[in-house]
Amino acid sequence: MGKKHIAVAMGGYSSEFEISLNSGGVVCDALDKNKYEVYPVHILEEGWNFVAKNGTKHPVNKANFSFDNGTETIKPDAVFNTIHGTPGEDGYLQAYWKLLGIPHTSTDYYQAALSFNKRDCLSVLKNFGVRCANSYYVNEGTEIDLEEIVKKTGLPCFVKPNRAGSSFGVSKVHNLEDLMPAIEKAFTEDSEIIIETALVGTEVSVGVYNKGTEIIALSATEIVSENEFFDYEAKYLGKSQEITPARISAEETEKVQKEAVRIYKLLNMKGITRSDFIIENGKPYFLEINTNPGLSTESIVPKQAREAGMTLTEFFDILVQNVLRGVE
Q1: Residue-wise over 171-196: b if at least 16 C-beta within 10 A, else e?
Q2: How far apart are CA 146 and CA 157, in angstroms?
Q3: Staple 207 to which of 6, 71, 218, 324, CB 3.0 to 4.6 Å?
Q4: What is the pLDDT of residues 142-185, one digit of tens each?
Q5: What does the alpha-carbon distance between residue 281 and residue 292 come to, in Å, rounded to a whole number?
Q6: Cβ neighbours, 10 Å, residue 299
């Protein structure tokens, strides 16, 4: 049996494309070359290309996601999706690959779209009794009643774009006069925003993945930001400490892992997800779920996989085997 052809999709059309290229590079390096022929595929607004080792670009045929590798035309057996943001984390590419019959390592298109929309995702989970912060929703072009917002969320509160990743456009607001500028900043990233009570507690992030039908929670990572909150600088410019495993009690760890697995099941997820929580008074409050979390070596999920005793090669192999199994 020959090696399977795996396209590693990276890039995307959002502010996060550079972070995604980094994740994709790590996956390409770590995938087992004895099992897989690995093809880095850059999906960018200026074009879709397989980028060969020597830097030459081979355009992707969007009719069937095939590309030339210099000697033959390759149609991938599976796609390892490492795109953060649109179009790889919000369902567009998942639906496209589904139509083409190409399996991929990320969750399905509807689950991706639902979870990418923070407001819709919270609305679904609240009905299942998942604890979340109090929130208030604002759409661009509608009248904004600042007093009403503060009545619902209190201060300090967070103002977030509804559909953006990597904390772009997020502000923490301490007083009423800063609320409107924060709303305007969030509107630069999205026409829908969400305003939430700032919970006080320990922020943790939990990776969950499936291995066949088994659903497994990784250890929790504690996020300690030097900035006001875990923002872009904190995430990518070293302005935070990420401590794995988190410095929380065994009981809190078990609670947050159980809740992360429950959310994964409630939302009918596949592949690797990372859920963020604040533990306030011993109880986990859900913030959001990422269906294509960062996979660069310093990202949270790879650290959790190493903490669980796996190499990235072993961990990524599980994710690829999940989707190839259904295809054999």
Answers
A1: bbbeeeeebeebbebbbebbebbbbb
A2: 12
A3: 218
A4: 999 999 999 999 999 999 999 865 567 889 999 999 999 999 99
A5: 29
A6: 22
Contact status, residue 156 vs residue 173, Cβ threshold 8 Å: yes
Tracing tokens 């980028």 back to the chain, one arrives at 51
pLDDT digits (tens, 9 = 90+) for 180-211: 999 999 999 889 999 999 999 999 999 999 99
What's this model's pTM, rounded to 2 decimal places?
A: 0.91
Specify the fold of 135-197: Dna Ligase; domain 1 (3.30.1490)
SS3 call for 66: strand
Regarding the domain with residue range 200-325, which homologous superfamily does it belong to in the CATH classification? Answer: ATP-grasp fold, B domain (3.30.470.20)
CA dihedral 222, 225, 226, 228 (to 10 degrees): -140
Please tell me the CATH code under which domain 4-113 is placed. 3.40.50.20
